[in-house]
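Researcher: Structure prediction, please.
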Amino acid sequence: FPVTINQRASEDLIQIADASVRNYISDATRKPKINLLTGPITDRTKAENYVKFLELSAIGWGKDWFPDEVNVALASVSDYSWIKEMWTTYGLIGGGFDSSKETWERFGNQCNQGSAIYATKPFFWGCLPSEAPEMIGLTKFSPHEYTHLVQYAIIYYQSGKKIWNLPFLFSEGSADFYGVTYASNNETLLKNWSLYWSQGYISTQARLALKSASVSEIELYLKDSMKDGKLASGHWYWTGAYATARLVAAKGHEGFVEYMRKAGSTGDVFQAFQDTYGISFDSFAELIAPEIKELTKKISN
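Model: Predicted structure follows.
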């Protein structure tokens, strides 16, 4: 790889990371069974379009995890009763999950809710927007959620059941990195990432916090997102996507999968990071904080 982990990132970081993933999946052909479930009022055609990159991501991840089947539930805002039944069936109700009708309807026809769970069977759900998705903020949805299922499968089920997942920075960050990657091709890659960096697709508070943060504050945010995530909540989708790109560019897609497996088998995400990348996470955070600070200039006002 052109850039080692402890060097400043190359200007073509995203192209390097993307090429690593595409090289890895170039011989992937197997497709697991995907069951798309839609609510009785939900437009099936729109639902199929919303998850149009799901199959590609499932094939790509198939070399690392190949389930018997994956169930995906999509519902329009009018199908609350149906989606609540799906949540119950697959184990989402309880544990702090907000299943209220008020919250469901608050997002209205422009809803972008969704989550994944692998408690009994691999499952994720989404609230279907009224308009067909055309921008990366929506088209990354299905490969993002599928990546969460892969995380649970590798880290928990395949690697010792010590922890369910990585901390926020890499659980959500890698889901966004792979979400954008699988929802892009050679022609749309740079356009999609440019839009992603400028729009952020994180809360206004997190965007403002990143834009106004100093390098040392960004470093603090990164370290905090590997623990309890109390600072600038939600920034880790955006900062974590960059951090994941850094890791994939340095040691390939295989390296990131290796990190997940080591984290799962030991239960120690920091030692697993050191063992995989030859650098402590704190040193990595110090290294990339100035790069992220520079990147925050692209966040639109």
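Model: Residues 21 and 266 are 25 Å apart (CA to CA).
Researcher: Thanks, that helps.
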